[in-house]
Amino acid sequence: MLSSLRDRVRAALLRFPALLATLGLLDRKKGTEAFDLAVPVMVTGGLRTLLRVADFLMVGMYAGGAAIAALEFGFQYYFVPFGLALALTSGTISVVSRFRGADEPAEANFAIKQSLWIALLLAVPITLFTHFYSEALVGVLTNDPRTITLGGDYLRVVMYSVGFRFWSMIAARALAGSGDTRTPMYVRLLTLPTNVGLNAALIFGLGPFPELGVVGAAWGTVAATTLAGVVFGWALLSGRYAVRLPVRGKQWDTDVARELVRVSLPLAGTRLSRTFGRFPFLFVLGVLGTEVVAAYAIGRRVMLLALMPAWGYSTAASTLVGQSIGAGDDEEADEYGWQTLRLALVTQLLIGGLIAVFARPLAAAFGSESVDLTVTFIRVFGLGVAGFAVARTMRGGLRGAGDTRWPLYGGLLGTYGVRLPIAVLALPASYAVTLFAGPLAATLGLAPVVVPLPGMDLGLLAVFAAIVGDFYARALVNLVRYHSDAWKRVARESGVGASADADAD
């Protein structure tokens, strides 16, 4: 019954790439493969985004705009280990897909274990640091006492989930690297609704659960993330899937670790540059007002729903490009990247347009105190969806080949060459900021420093231009790099897969 329903749904969905092929926009075979891989990732990402949207919705209902701002500030620090996990697991999917393409399953399996050990080395100190300094970290971004308290409480608790988050993402990306994107979707279909239910129960005190308010959202996330980690652990230890986690045998291989780190480091730089770039950007929004931060937070979460297709197509591009490279077929790999991009653009623009049209009822659902401003933020993000689709899909193709430096360059350009220099123009003229003035700086022995900023009092106009410009700067860099074909040489020189063996011969 369920199998039959699943097959009917899949057949209905596959009509979309078939239609694009009929219109001459797509190669049917390659487009269907990419779409089939991407849809489960879209569903998983969409559920994850809906969870964050639900968190903001429920917290806003419980405690208003200040609580939404607190969640946004606290969540930015959660993006630090989340970004590291994305980077590390990008190395995982790259290495696993190339080993699978080269028909070396034992090496693919060991790459999963190696990724896990690296993850533990990162997760434990991060969790300990934020446990002790959560309020001080939030205090760097705002001087509102209530926001600092709420954000610090949320951050301290949600960081307890970091280790399980790392493992869940390693397992999901390893399965994707083997061509299985459905199993991670099924796990998320179990754990993410559980997360939403637990968050609601713990925020509002439903049934036998205590009323914990904002921190309840954090405890719900910890419980659900732990559940996901346990389920993924069972899956990869069971031996029922294309890849597995080998417990016995060697625990560390420097060559594999080096390749994982080589692929991951630029992506870590990309993610962290973007994450750390959000802090001064949020500071600018905070100067413009708490209602601006809340409107931005809601608008961004809503628009992330439109951006989910690009996440799916990025993973599809990584898998298909990586497996083709591993099998020694560079031209096939190249074509998979371009066909996936075509799919991504069409899908992204259709969904982004729909969300922009329905921006007002979506904004109103959050009980926002500034509905008009929230609607504007949603539509500004909508202007950037094409840029996001190009940047993300091309980055996925480059990642599959193990070429991750240029996405880092694009990220640095977008954040520090476009977003922040334009955003700072929103500040009042002659505005200055005092650095190292909080309790964390005092603990570290840092003296306060006053830094003047080149504000031009452009307000929200500069903020909107910064958001859109960032998207398209990243897109340009990744598109040019993929078009150059230099990533094929990087793949051959990596020492992983059949293309590397052919180059050595």
Task: Give the helices and strands, then pairings.
Blueprint: H1 2-13, H2 15-22, H3 28-63, H4 65-101, H5 105-139, H6 145-158, H7 162-177, H8 182-204, H9 214-238, H10 254-288, H11 290-326, H12 330-357, H13 359-365, H14 371-383, H15 385-400, H16 405-423, E1 432-435, H17 439-444, E2 449-452, H18 460-484, H19 486-493, H20 498-504
Antiparallel strand pairs: 1-2
Helix pairs in contact: 2-3, 3-4, 3-8, 3-11, 3-12, 4-5, 4-6, 4-7, 4-10, 4-11, 5-6, 5-7, 6-9, 7-9, 8-9, 10-11, 10-16, 11-12, 11-14, 11-15, 12-14, 12-15, 13-14, 15-18, 16-18
Subcellular location: Cell membrane
Protein name: Multidrug-efflux transporter
Transmembrane segments: 50-71, 77-96, 116-134, 154-175, 187-206, 212-237, 279-298, 343-363, 375-394, 406-425, 431-451, 458-477
Report on the architecture of this protein:
With 505 residues, the chain is an all-alpha fold. It has one domain. It is 81% helix and 2% strand. It is built from 20 helices and two strands. A two-stranded antiparallel ribbon has the order 1-2. Helix 16 runs antiparallel to helix 18. The longest helix is centred in the first third of the chain and has 37 residues. The C terminus is likely disordered. Its main location: membrane. It holds the Pfam family MatE. It is found in: Cell membrane.
Largest sheet: 2 strands, antiparallel
Shape: globular
Seen as an oligomer or otherwise, the chain set is single chain
C-alpha Rg (nearest Å): 22 Å
Strand content: under 5%
Number of strands: 2
Domain count: the total is 1
Helix coverage percent of residues?
over 70%
Spans where pLDDT lies below 50 across 5 or more residues: 497-505
Strand order of the largest sheet: 1-2
The secondary-structure class comes to mainly alpha
Mean pLDDT: 84
The number of helices is 20
The topology string of helices and strands comes to HHHHHHHHHHHHHHHHEHEHHH
Distance between the termini: 52 Å
